[in-house]
Amino acid sequence: xxxxxxxxxxxxxxxxxxxxxxxxxxxxxxxxxxxxxxxxxxxxxxxxxxxxxxxxxxxxxxxxxxxxxxxxxxxxxxxxxxxxxxxxxxxxxxxxxxxxxxxxxxxxxxxxxxxxxxxxxxxxxxxxxxxxxxxxxxxx
Length: 140
Known about the structure:
By secondary structure, this protein is α/β, with parallel strands linked by helices. The chain contains three helices and six strands; from the N terminus they run H-E-E-E-H-E-H-E-E.
């Protein structure tokens, strides 16, 4: 079994959303918060480093989230449990529990992408071709 996608490393958790994709989504949704970021990779002025922390989330927030792919579940659970708008960029892992929760929620709109997304690598990591399909999930 390949466990590489589920291990937290720079190879899978710190890749940044391409500017063109974030800009397109931000134009549509006008994000308030980057829900999975730190000072080095934030895409919104307000960002949350730790999903267990409530800082940055206000009632009715519009949250952009490209979560660490080794730990997607808490971000999806938080979005489904709240009243905020969340827009996710996620790998198409159709057998994952978080995927099932998203798909079966009446609050979720799924947008399938025709091509794989080439994310921007973190400093010191060589760029490579996308290894998996990606989709957009909008939780309203």
